[in-house]
Structures are given as C-alpha cells and as structure tokens.
Amino acid sequence: MTTTPKTKLELTWPGKQNRPRLEPRILLENKALSCRAAQPAAEKSLLGILTQKV
Predict the structure, then answer these.
(1) Which of 24, 36, 38, 39 has the CA that lies 20 to 30 A from 14?
(2) CA distance 49 to 43
(3) Left if phi > 0, otherwise alpha if psi is -120 to 50, otherwise beta: which for 49?
C-alpha cells in the first residue's frame, strides 16, 4: 500500500500580504470599570478548586 503525502490547507484572501503594522499598547486598569470580587474565592468553592495551583 502506498501512502500519499498530506496536503496543507492554506488560507488566502486579497490583501493578506499587506497587513498593517501593529503598535504596542500599554493596558491601564480602570477601577471604575473593573469587575473584580471584593474577596478571592474560597478554596473549597468550584472556582477555587479550578484555579488552585498544582
């Protein structure tokens, strides 16, 4: 049995080669727009279990 090489799918569109140059940005936290909890999740809560470090 002979094996055929797998072909690679390539996405192309007009203007793909002419990508705009991205500028680096600095993100600043706005406390008025922040949605952080007042206290971190308890270790026994589902969120605490999922986010605990191994």
Answers:
(1) 24
(2) 6
(3) alpha
Q: What angle do CA 11, 14, 17 make, to 5 degrees?
A: 75
User: CA 18, CA 10: separation in Å to the nearest integer?
Assistant: 17
Distances (CA, A) of 54 to 5, 49, 50, 51: 41, 10, 10, 9
The predicted-structure confidence for 14-39, as pLDDT tens digits, reads as follows 988 898 888 889 988 888 887 777 77
First to last CA, the chain: 47
